[in-house]
């Protein structure tokens, strides 16, 4: 038999190979390492995680949805990022320093040597200026994230000053550390777009610790190490993000070993605690999500506020949460979660509602025997809640039809840019992600957002005024009162019935990773670490 | 004056009609000799009876939430336990059978009728019409059923009627093709040619000679399609594209149960077993009928 020669001159025949293999296996077992983990350790370190939806936008200037930002966090850099852990806070990332010079001026200085891939050179203050200003210039859907940005002054290659037209408190909480704060290469973006606009799903270059290596729609997003990255080395060689809409399916995938990190549904929590999964840690985090029943105020059947109020009062929130979340989620009082500025102590409509009052509203509207339909995402908690809602509305004589939608269809229902479906939308169970500033919740319900993210088509001048003013208020109690009023206005419109902020439990394989998440459990993949053997 | 009968009792259809009572007894004896066929018949009868008398059998309203504790295991109160909304699973299984049979039988009836008419026209009509119809039928058949179903449901919205429509459209070409082939084969037989020579009209030839000979194989084929259609309805409902909640369907039972399988396996079992039994029942019965009415096909197989 011909020997296999290694480059070091050692020879290895079949018998020696088997011996060496057996010795290695024995060594591994003697060391106490499970064989599967040893095999994993011998291969590239791959983080396999689940996302609740597939990516559909990788331009941070035009980002949509948190699941896109999860990927952007890995492939781009920004001045600040949320610090991983259980307390909200930010840390410097691409910036050496960021300081508030006065209420409308913020000076930043970039770290030297942060490189864009594909030969686009070093990140400069000019790139930061371009990245921030293009969001305003192109009237991006997330222009609100930059609020009153006027312009960015470039002082030298690394230093710039963000100039605001008026003070903007959320800049520190959401703008800089979240999606809109990512910095792209001016040269690269201008090359692939006509005028620096949206480059969609084709990033011309990267500047984070990972690059987008492959994207198979609805299958997997693969991120690999950025060879040009010279910052802190991330723990994993590759990150595989699998879009799995239903958390129950994700739990099954986790049990089958297809993924090693996933959020789990609250309805599974009790069972996972009772029968812990092997090699698995469970962490529970309070969530900032807000879930509500929304009503399209422009729909002929719902134009009468009495009909909307009838629906509001017919809904028994604790009952919905009991079936949807197995009693593991608390009732929400509004959009803003406990612990954030603007959280209300109680809603205007009591959680249990009042069937008699609902019937009165319905009679006032002359809408007895009404038939409505509700769109829900095809997740078990939403469909289950919708069926309970069907029973609840049935008690006051409203027939509710349920339309279950897959994520691709659901997330465009109310968008005018996606066709005419918004006209048919009536009721919806909606769930939005959130970052730790109340502005991020309210800003999607202004009149400008009608047909964008404001699918209820709720429009109040008073609300818009408060929303614009509150961002400049640094006094927390005064600011909180403004957000209380805004939520009151929303609720008084009859278009909203707030349900819950859910919770954010997640599970992961202890032998593989030490996860790094925001306090609300949102993954920060670039900080995930490999468990040391 | 009607043309004289020239068939002299020598066509298969005429043979089959000789002594109906005797033939039935003979077929019944043949079926009794086939244990799988008998088992299939028993299952089919059981399923049909439970669907027909569903309203008298179910102990609870199948849509009543909180009829019992959520995800409870089987008990005397709830024979198959309860689902995530506390609904009685046994009641939902029985009422789901009604939905399954409604979809299967109504869509089969519509598809058979349309397929029969189109197949007769294609097989007995002029060549250009045959070509045109074949092109249409093959175009429909070219669509993968599930993809076609998802497209139609996306356009029209999920409902029982949409599911039936999908099944009808996708099964018509199958039956039409079978009828067309049979019709073409039969129309060249000597007794048909003789009938024509004697001045028999198209209606008489189709109605008296061809139709009785194609209807048998068609019904056998249909009986074997029942489980396929039930599985299609269940599959669409499992994907949330079938019947609308809270209408019970075996597919939605499976979907709901699957989501809570780690909390309670009973809803999945309750949703899965009827699909298996129905499939077995109709398949065994269909095969037995095929053996009885078309022993040549059995030998060929």
From TrEMBL, chain A:
GO annotation terms (biological process): peptide transport
Cellular component terms per the entry's GO annotation: ATP-binding cassette (ABC) transporter complex; outer membrane-bounded periplasmic space
Domain Solute-binding protein family: 93-448
Cleaved signal peptide residues: none
Gene Ontology MF terms in the entry: peptide transmembrane transporter activity
PROSITE patterns: TAT
InterPro entries with a match to the protein in the record: Peptide/Ni-bd, SBP_5, SBP_5_dom, TAT_signal
Protein name: Peptide/nickel transport system substrate-binding protein
Species of the source: Modicisalibacter muralis
From TrEMBL, chain B:
Ranges annotated as spanning the membrane: 36-58, 99-122, 142-175, 214-239, 268-289
One protein family per Pfam: OppC_N
Membrane-related topology note: Multi-pass membrane protein
Protein name, per record: Peptide/nickel transport system permease protein
Keywords from the UniProt entry: Cell membrane, Membrane, Transmembrane, Transmembrane helix, Transport
Source taxon at top rank: Bacteria
Listed CDD domains: TM_PBP2
Domain ABC transmembrane type-1 positions: 97-286
Family of this protein: Belongs to the binding-protein-dependent transport system permease family.
One GO term of the biological process aspect: transmembrane transport
One GO cellular component term noted in the UniProt record for this chain: plasma membrane
PROSITE patterns: ABC_TM1
InterPro entries given in the database record: BP-dependent_transpt_permease, MetI-like, MetI-like_sf, OppC_N
Compartments, as annotated in UniProt: Cell membrane
Main location: membrane
The organism's taxonomic lineage, starting at the top: Bacteria, Pseudomonadati, Pseudomonadota, Gammaproteobacteria, Oceanospirillales
């Amino acid at each position: 038999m011909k020997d296999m020669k290694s480059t070091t001159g050692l020879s290895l025949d079949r018998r020696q190979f088997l011996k060496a293999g057996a010795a290695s296996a024995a060594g591994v077992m003697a060391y106490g390492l499970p064989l599967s983990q040893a095999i994993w350790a011998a291969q590239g370190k791959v983080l396999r995680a689940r996302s609740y939806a597939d990516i559909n936008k990788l331009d941070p200037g035009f980002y949509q949805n948190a699941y896109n930002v999860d990927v952007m966090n890995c492939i781009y850099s920004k001045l600040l990022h949320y610090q991983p852990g259980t307390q909200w806070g930010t840390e410097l990332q691409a910036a050496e320093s960021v300081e508030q010079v006065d209420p409308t001026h913020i000076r930043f200085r970039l770290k030297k040597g942060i490189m864009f891939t594909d030969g686009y050179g070093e990140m400069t203050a000019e790139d930061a200026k371009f990245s921030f200003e293009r969001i305003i210039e192109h009237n991006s859907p997330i222009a609100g994230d930059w609020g009153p940005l006027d312009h960015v002054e470039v002082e030298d290659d690394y230093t710039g000053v963000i100039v605001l037209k008026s003070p903007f408190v959320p800049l520190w909480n959401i703008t800089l550390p979240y999606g809109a704060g990512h910095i792209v290469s001016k040269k690269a973006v201008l090359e692939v777009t006509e005028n620096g606009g949206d480059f969609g799903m084709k990033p011309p270059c990267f500047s984070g610790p990972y690059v987008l290596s492959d994207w198979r729609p609805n299958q997997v997003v693969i991120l690999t190490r950025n060879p040009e990255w010279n910052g802190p080395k991330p723990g994993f060689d590759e990150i595989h993000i699998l879009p799995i809409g239903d958390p129950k399916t994700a739990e099954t995938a986790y049990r089958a070993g297809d993924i090693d990190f996933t959020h789990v549904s609250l309805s599974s929590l009790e069972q996972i605690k009772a029968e812990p999964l092997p090699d698995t840690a469970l962490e529970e985090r309070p969530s900032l999500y807000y879930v509500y029943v929304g009503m399209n105020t422009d729909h002929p059947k719902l134009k009468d506020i009495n009909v909307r109020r009838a629906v509001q009062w017919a809904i028994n929130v604790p009952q919905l949460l009991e079936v949807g979340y197995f009693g593991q989620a608390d009732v929400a009082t509004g959009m803003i979660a406990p612990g954030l500025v603007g959280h209300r102590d109680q809603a205007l409509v009591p959680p249990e509602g009042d069937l008699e009052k609902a019937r009165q509203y319905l009679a006032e509207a002359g809408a007895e025997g009404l038939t409505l339909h509700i769109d829900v995402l095809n997740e078990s908690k939403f469909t289950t809640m919708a069926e309970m809602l069907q029973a609840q509305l049935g008690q006051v004589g409203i027939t509710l039809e349920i339309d279950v939608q897959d994520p691709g269809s659901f997330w465009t229902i109310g968008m005018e840019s996606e066709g005419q479906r918004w006209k048919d939308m009536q009721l919806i169970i909606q769930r939005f992600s959130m970052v730790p500033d109340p502005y991020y919740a309210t800003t999607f319900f202004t009149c400008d957002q009608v047909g964008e993210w404001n699918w209820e088509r709720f429009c109040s001048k008073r609300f818009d005024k408060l929303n614009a003013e509150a961002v400049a208020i640094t006094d927390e109690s005064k600011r909180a009162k403004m957000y209380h009023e805004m939520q009151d206005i929303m609720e008084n419109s009859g278009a909203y019935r707030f349900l819950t902020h859910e919770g954010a439990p997640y599970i992961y394989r202890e032998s593989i990773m030490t996860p790094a998440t925001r306090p609300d459990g949102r993954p920060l993949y670039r900080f995930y670490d490999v468990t040391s053997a | 004056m009607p043309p004289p009968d020239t068939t002299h009792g020598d066509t298969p259809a005429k043979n089959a009609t000789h002594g109906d009572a005797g033939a039935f007894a003979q077929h019944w004896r043949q079926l009794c000799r086939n244990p799988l066929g008998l088992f299939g018949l028993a299952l089919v009868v059981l399923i049909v009876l439970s669907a027909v008398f569903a309203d008298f059998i179910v102990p609870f309203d199948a849509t009543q939430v909180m009829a019992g504790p959520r995800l409870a295991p089987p008990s005397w109160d709830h024979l198959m336990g309860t689902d995530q909304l506390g609904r009685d699973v046994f009641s939902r299984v029985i009422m789901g059978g009604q939905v399954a049979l409604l979809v299967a039988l109504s869509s089969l009836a519509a598809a058979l009728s349309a397929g029969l008419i189109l197949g007769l026209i294609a097989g007995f009509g002029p060549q250009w019409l045959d070509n045109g119809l074949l092109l249409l039928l093959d175009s429909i058949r070219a669509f993968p059923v599930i993809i076609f179903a998802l497209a139609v449901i996306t356009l029209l919205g999920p409902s029982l009627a949409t599911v039936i429509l999908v099944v009808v459209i996708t099964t018509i070409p199958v039956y039409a093709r079978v009828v067309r082939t049979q019709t073409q084969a039969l129309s060249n037989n000597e007794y048909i040619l003789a009938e024509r020579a004697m001045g028999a009209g198209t209606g008489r030839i189709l109605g008296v000679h061809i139709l009785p000979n194609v209807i048998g194989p068609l019904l056998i084929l249909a009986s074997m399609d029942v489980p396929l259609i039930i599985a299609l309805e269940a599959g669409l409902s499992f994907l949330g594209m079938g019947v609308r909640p809270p209408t019970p369907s075996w597919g939605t039972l499976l979907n709901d149960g699957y989501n809570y399988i780690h909390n309670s396996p009973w809803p999945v079992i309750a949703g899965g077993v009827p699909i298996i039994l129905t499939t077995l029942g109709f398949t065994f019965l269909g095969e037995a009928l095929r053996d009885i009415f078309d022993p040549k096909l059995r030998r060929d197989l």
